Amino acid sequence: MKLQNLVTIVTGASQGLGRAIAEEFVKEGAHVAICARDRTLLETVRSDLEGRATSGQHVLAYAGDVSSPEQMDELFRRTEQEIGLVDVLVNNAGVYGPKGPSESVDLEEWRRALEINLLGTFIPTRFAIAQMKKKGSGKIVNLSGGGATNPLPRLSAYAASKAAVVRLTETLAEELREFSIAINVIAPGALNTRFLDEVLKAGPELVGSGFYERALKQRDSGGAPIEKGAALCVYLASARQRWSHWQTD
């Protein structure tokens, strides 16, 4: 029980990696607050997590938008009132955004992708920092993904926002070091989630033939194990990981 009694929040937890992280957190003894925009999917996950939880474990579900300061304020206030001050935040929520040549994609969709991926990481983190400073410690895990590791032609909003999440994480690691708040950013690999489904649906005309062909191979190979990404989040949230993004024991 590596996360026994820790109060955790996982965003984007209604499906995919976010759901897998929440499941592992419950398995390791954490109290878990899950957040996503789709209320129906979220309630399904909440019911499943409650079935996995032991007596005394709390599971909270909140349908909200990570890019909304007002809604994130409510999420963190409810978590504090019903479970306690937050020990761990996983900023998993994200979108691919518009696909296609950068000069022709919809500008509002491009802007919205940055709001969700970048502001949707920064805003929950601000609220988490305030609570973690009260406790004297905390762990934050951000998701970068392939957008931060390589250029992604025809997915410019995703690539730009995820690269920005990496530099934001590095910057906050320096800010938060003296407060015993560790913040890390991870890229869990090419997962067979809704992101893959989006690429296959968009087709080579929008995402490019090379990226589309890689997506087909990923679909057929099974992609990176989603359990591995969830296990990494457990490790980074646990007492075994004690320092900032470049140091682990």
Explained architecture:
The protein is 51% helix and 13% strand. It has helices at 16-27, 39-52, 69-82, 107-135, 156-176, 194-202, 204-207, 209-221, 226-237; strands at residues 7-11, 31-36, 59-63, 88-91, 138-143, 181-186. It has a 6-stranded parallel beta sheet with strand order 3-2-1-4-5-6, with helices on both faces. Helix 5 links the parallel strand 5 (138-143) and strand 6 (181-186). The radius of gyration is 18 Å and the shape is globular. The two termini are 19 Å apart. Residues 243-249 have low confidence and may be disordered.
Describe the structure concisely.
This protein is α/β, with parallel strands linked by helices and 249 residues long. 51% of the residues lie in helices and 13% in strands.
**Could you give the count of β-strands?**
6
Largest sheet: 6 strands, parallel
The whole-number mean of residue pLDDT values reads 92
Give the SSE string. Answer: EHEHEHEHEHEHHHH
Q: Trace the largest sheet across and list its strands.
A: 3-2-1-4-5-6
Identify the quaternary structure here. Answer: single chain
CA distance, first residue to last residue:
19 Å
Helical element count? 9
> Which structural category fits the helices and strands?
alpha/beta
> What fraction of the residues are assigned to beta strands by DSSP?
5-15%
Helical amount among residues, as a percent range? 40-55%
Bulk shape: globular
